[in-house]
Design goal:
Blueprint: H1 3-10, E1 46-50, E2 55-60, E3 64-70, E4 78-80, E5 85-89, E6 93-98, E7 103-109, H2 114-117, E8 128-134, E9 140-146, E10 153-158, E11 163-169, E12 174-179, E13 185-190, E14 195-200, E15 206-209, E16 229-230, E17 237-241, E18 245-249, E19 256-260, E20 266-272, E21 278-284, E22 295-299, E23 305-309, E24 317-319, E25 325-329, E26 340-345, E27 351-355, E28 360-365
Antiparallel strand pairs: 1-2, 1-28, 2-3, 4-5, 5-6, 6-7, 8-9, 9-10, 10-11, 12-13, 13-14, 14-15, 16-17, 17-18, 18-19, 20-21, 21-22, 22-23, 24-25, 25-26, 26-27
């Protein structure tokens, strides 16, 4: 059975499928906090968002968690500034974390009405912040806010004033937010609307449909965009689909082309290195009869790929500053998550699992 046919067969039963609501709301796990007096290893520290709690956790990549700091309910994405401040998209607002002092400096509430967002909650469909990114100069933080049952909102935070100064309507469930190299445009990936919204600093937003399999099945389709990366060489957007197709979008013209991928698995988080190497997290099969399991794809700028198998579902990925190691979060937006990360040696493909907070989702290298 091909993927499109398999998807069509599932259209009537999407409530039980991946990327669809669970039967019951998720409850947060017991919160853990530590003082973190241990010195980090020579590899430095990682910071992960604890999607199953209300904290962010500092992780030594050699030994595991060293400290946790309260952020806000179900923190999702994270953006790190050159000044050591981390901006975290939580359910009720954007938390500002001083990563050097390991403390929260404040929580910036969203301008979107709490009535539309609902009470702070947990789980994939909770209202509030999802993808988040910083302007290249650090002046603004851009956060995609999920509005349950409707289109999302991009909220623009003035990082000096620490308040929301602009809101822009975008697509449904804004999984990811990226910024152009010169900071002139913001790109918001709308998971449930099959699109990227291009938000210029001046001028009107414009929608680019990104649906290489079509929008067959609507909200019930599995074949939706999740995360994007801005290619350093030319500013084009790279959006992987199902370990089969990489959609390369020119945000200036809205035109796209499709390149083949090889992992053959459902894909979520991405990262790109300065030389244009793309890393993509494979979460597992849609059709267990024909698809492959979880993996990390390393795609070279010339299109060659190495696919490293992973043990169990994962969600997002970051790369060490020397480019030798990938850190893949095990939090996952659906069932099957675990409380840790997988550390992958990119030269050998060797992997080891490491404890890391409560359902770690977003990740940054400090």
């Amino acid at each position: 059975m091909n993927r499109r046919a398999f998807l069509g067969a599932l259209a009537g039963t999407v409530a039980a499928s991946a990327c669809t609501p669970s039967a019951a709301p998720e409850e947060p796990r017991a919160e853990r906090r530590t003082t973190g007096s241990a010195a980090p290893s020579s590899a430095g520290l990682l910071l992960v968002t604890d999607f199953g709690a209300d904290t962010v956790t500092f992780v030594d990549p050699a030994s595991g968690p060293v400290a946790s700091v309260r952020a806000g309910a179900a923190p999702y994405g994270i953006a790190l500034g050159d000044d050591g401040l981390a901006w975290v998209a939580a359910a009720e607002g954007v938390a500002v974390i001083d990563t050097r002092a390991r403390r929260r400096l404040g929580l910036i509430p969203y301008r979107t009405s709490p009535t539309r967002l609902g009470q702070p909650a947990y789980g994939e469909y909770r209202g509030g912040g999802m993808g988040i990114a910083l302007a290249p100069d650090g002046r603004y933080a851009y956060v995609g806010v999920n509005v349950p049952g409707g289109n999302g909102v991009l909220e623009v935070v003035d990082t000096a004033a620490r308040k929301v100064v602009r809101t822009v309507p975008v697509g449904r469930r804004p999984f990811d937010v990226d910024v152009s190299r010169d900071g002139s445009e913001v790109y918001v990936t709308g998971h449930d609307s099959f699109d990227v919204t291009v938000v210029p600093a001046r001028g009107r937003p414009r929608r680019i449909e990104v649906a290489p399999y079509g929008t067959e099945g609507g909200l019930g389709s599995w074949l939706k965009p999740h995360h994007a990366a801005v290619r350093p060489s030319d500013g084009r957007l790279l959006l992987p689909f199902e370990g089969e197709k990489l959609v390369v979008v020119d945000p200036r013209t809205g035109r796209s082309r499709v390149e083949a991928m090889t992992a053959n698995t459902h894909q979520h988080g991405v990262a790109v290195t300065p030389d244009g190497t793309l890393l993509v997290v494979g979460t597992g099969p849609i059709d267990p009869a024909s698809d492959r399991g979880p993996s990390l794809t390393v795609r070279m700028p010339d299109g060659r790929e190495r696919v490293h198998p992973l043990d169990g579902p994962h969600e997002d990925v970051a790369v060490s500053r020397d480019g030798r190691t990938a850190y893949v979060t095990g939090g996952f937006t659906r069932d099957g998550y675990w409380d840790g990360i997988t550390v992958v040696d990119l030269a050998t493909g060797r992997a080891r699992r490491l404890p890391a907070g409560h359902r770690p989702l977003g990740i940054a290298v400090l």
